[in-house]
Design goal:
Elements: E1 2-7, H1 14-25, E2 29-31, H2 32-41, H3 45-55, H4 62-72, E3 81-85, H5 91-103, E4 110-115, H6 118-132, H7 139-163, E5 166-170, H8 175-191
Parallel strand pairs: 1-3, 1-4, 2-3, 4-5
Length: 197
Amino acid sequence: MTRLLIIGPPGSGKGTQAERLARHFGVPAVSTGDIFRSNVARETELGNQAAGYLDGGQFVPDHLTNALVKDRLLDHDVRQGFLLDGYPRTAPQAAELDTMLASQGCSLDVVIELQAPDAELEQRMRRRALEQGRTDDTVDVFRRRLDLYHRETHEVVSVYARRGILVSVNGSGDPGEITGWAIAAVEKFLASPRPPA
């Protein structure tokens, strides 16, 4: 029963690592992007509300994101664990996640932070834009997303670091190597004696 969260800046390969780690630990990967798309496609009430923001290229506000994640975490397949990707992005969302999990009598086990220098992340983004022809991957858009990560999401990293459940993983290098480092870091953390809460 492992409840994991993966955090990393844009371009850090978070989505790829989330899928690989979820497979290794035998838990479903729960991505906010997938939650949004699934609800929009099924035209749920929450999905219809989220669609208005997504279509306008805006962030889905906290109250709506929280409600969508809460709904997903009640599904049967995540009862024995999960790997969250893309949530929480802000300190208020982290507090809301605590409340959701506490209501189910559980909490996060480990938070994995992927680290990589900004210059390398930008280089990866430029390469991806060329390879995939992605028009949304412009330097300006990337730098705005990176700035937002440093201003808001890094606060979330601090919350989990203070709690003693953060493991930082080198996100530079071959994706297979990074997966290996992340698995080793999580397994070492889970095997170590934990102080009583």
